[in-house]
Design brief:
The chain is an all-alpha fold. It has a single domain (13-103), classed as Chorismate mutase (Chorismate Mutase Domain, subunit A). It has three helices and no strands. The protein has helices at 13-53, 61-73, 81-103. The longest helix has 41 residues, at 13-53. The protein starts with 12 loop residues before the first helix and ends with a helix.
């Protein structure tokens, strides 16, 4: 494993500083991303318990597709729709598992 701050090629100090700044920004985004995943998982679990208590179906395929379509419509430059859709579908499968665990 390569140590966190090592680079395969030596860089000029200003380039190394720029790379460190980008990495620090990415690290911050990663922390925010994990916090959002945790927050969404908590809310998904609450919804799953609510649905169970009221005898509602646990999964709404139409709602999921509408959500996916809406998110894909927000994709800006640099995000390929097919790749983003694949990532979002992975996330949705993850949250369905969270919901199943919450329902018991």
């Amino acid at each position: 494993m390569v140590p966190e701050n090592s680079d395969p090629l030596p860089l000029a100090e200003d380039d190394a500083a720029r790379l460190r700044a980008w990495r620090a920004e990415l690290d911050g985004l990663n922390l925010r991303l994990v916090a959002l995943v945790q927050e969404r998982a908590r809310l998904v679990a609450e919804v799953a318990r609510f649905k169970r208590e009221r005898g509602l179906p646990p999964f709404d395929a139409q709602r999921e597709e509408e959500m996916l379509d809406g998110l894909l419509a927000q994709a800006g430059p640099g995000l390929l729709p097919d790749e983003l859709a694949r990532l979002l579908r992975i996330a949705m499968r993850f949250y369905r598992r969270v919901a199943r665990r919450a329902r018991g």
